[in-house]
Structures are given as C-alpha cells and as structure tokens.
Amino acid sequence: MIGDFHVHTHYCQHGSADNMEAYVLQALAKGLTHLSFTEHAPLPESFSDPAPQKDSTMDRDKVEAYLKEGQALQKQYAQDLQINIGFEVDYIQGYEHATKQFLDMYGAETDDSILSVHMLQAPDKSFFCIDFSEEEFGRAAKAFGGLTLLYKAYYDSLQASVEAELGRFKPKRIGHITLIQKFQLAFPQPADFWPEQRQLLALMKKNGYELDVNTAGLYKPLCKEIYPSAQLIQHAVALGIPLVPGSDSHAAAGIGKGFEKLQAFPLRVPQTQISK
Ligand SMILES: [Zn+2]
Ligand SMILES: [Zn+2]
C-alpha cells in the first residue's frame, strides 16, 4: 500500500485525542510508505461555522503548533516514512480572498493539501455544513428548495472550486467529490447527476487536479460507498486523472482503513507540492 493521503488529527475540534505520532506508528504498522496529514484548515475569520457544534475545523491559533508537530515527526521518521504536512482547505464560495490569504500565509510550509466543499450557501444566504448530520442535511435540503437543488448547488460549488483563483499554493487535489451522498440511504439521490459529475471530472483533468479516492463513506452508516463510486473512479481513470487514496481518518486506528477495496484502481502518490 503506497500511503494514506487524507488524514486528520486532534487539532481539529471533532478529531479523536490520538496524538500525531500514533498515526505515524499505525501507518508504519500497516506497511505504508507515505502519510499526508491534511488537517481541516481554519475557516476564514469573516465566516461563521454553520455546523451546530461549530467544530468543523482547527482553531486559527493552533496552526503553528500543528505544523511544528508535523514537521518534527517528518524529521524523526524520515528514514521510514515520507510524511507530508498540509491541510484540507474548505472551498467556500464568496470567501476566495480569505482562503487565498490563508494559503499564501502557510503554503510554503506545506507539502500536500486537499480542497474540499463542505459548506454551501442556500438561496436565503444562510450556510449549511452538508456532512454534519442527517438532520442538518434535511434542513439544508429544505432551505435549498429540495434535494435536487441541493445536489446541483453542491456540484456547482465543486466546479467553482476547481476554477477558483486561490494562488500558487492552491491544493492540487479535490476532496471526496460525492460527499453530498453521505446520507443517501436516508435521502436517496433525487436524480442522476452523471452529467454534472462528468463535467466536473473533465474540468479537473483540464486543470490538472488529482482525485481524492476516499474510503470514509464506506463506514458512514447512511452512505456505505467510497467517495466517489467505482463507476466515477473508472471514468476518472479513463480521463487520466491521478487517483490518490485517503481514509479521511480522525483517529489513528483508521489509517488505511478500507484500502483493500481500492486494489483494482491505479493509485498514485500525490504530486507533492508546488514549487517551493
Ligand atoms: Zn473532519
Ligand atoms: Zn472533508
């Protein structure tokens, strides 16, 4: 197994208490050669976390400590494991400027990051965190005027994320591109979004992005599927989009979880970062 390239830590407010070294040891025990820490970057200061617990990301004042701890492990385990430090950065439409500022500030200290959509703005301007809970997802569907419109808004935002101008440290990988299906067993997909999905992948290919092949959905009781589906992954392969595996672990025990289900796919290590 080449590595796990989507991993969270105790620095985000909804992570487990495991220290970062525990993740490293688990990666070694699983025989991985690479590990990317991609903790949730702090949200823009002008943006209020719409998740009911307001716990979506790490606090801004923890960023330095996170990078320092990661960099120390990077050195300590350099012989055994390539450790990358980076962020899972939220793409929030309308907050591009603040997001670019964050990336400009810390990009030079990072190796590998992911750009993801979790936050969507409803027609009444309120924001929703679409993966927080089944209940919140239901509220979002109402606010958007139905599931179909919510799905459409999600794919619009993903496309915008690929096209957004976020500067030279913009992540080169798009996170879990079917996260909108996290609660699909309670809220069945209202329509076929194959055209939107295909368009998104074409745009990713055109702009040189990698795909986060994310096993977390397999273990969500209302999803039970990889993000994205095998069919979409095959389409990405046909387009020549690099597939980068990630467990989206929030605890050390989750490193590499479900990767046996990815054996059929041509997985790659990420293009580590951007000319430093
Ligand atoms: Zn998380
Ligand atoms: Zn995510």
UniProtKB/TrEMBL annotation:
Catalysed reactions listed for this entry: L-histidinol phosphate + H2O = L-histidinol + phosphate
Domain PHP positions: 4-216
Any one GO BP annotation for this protein: L-histidine biosynthetic process
The keyword Amino-acid biosynthesis belongs to this UniProt entry's keyword annotation: yes
Pathway this chain belongs to: Amino-acid biosynthesis; L-histidine biosynthesis; L-histidine from 5-phospho-alpha-D-ribose 1-diphosphate: step 8/9
Pfam families: PHP (PF02811)
CDD domains linked: PHP_HisPPase_Hisj_like
Alphabetized InterPro entries for the sequence: Histidinol_P_phosphatase_HisJ, PHP_dom, Pol/histidinol_Pase-like
Entry keywords, A to Z: Amino-acid biosynthesis, Histidine biosynthesis, Hydrolase
Ranges in a coiled coil: none
One of the record's GO molecular function terms: histidinol-phosphatase activity
PANTHER family named among the record's database cross-references: HISTIDINOL PHOSPHATASE-RELATED (PTHR21039), HISTIDINOL-PHOSPHATASE (PTHR21039:SF0)
Protein family membership: Belongs to the PHP hydrolase family. HisK subfamily.
Name the record gives this protein: Histidinol-phosphatase
Species whose genome carries this gene: Terribacillus aidingensis
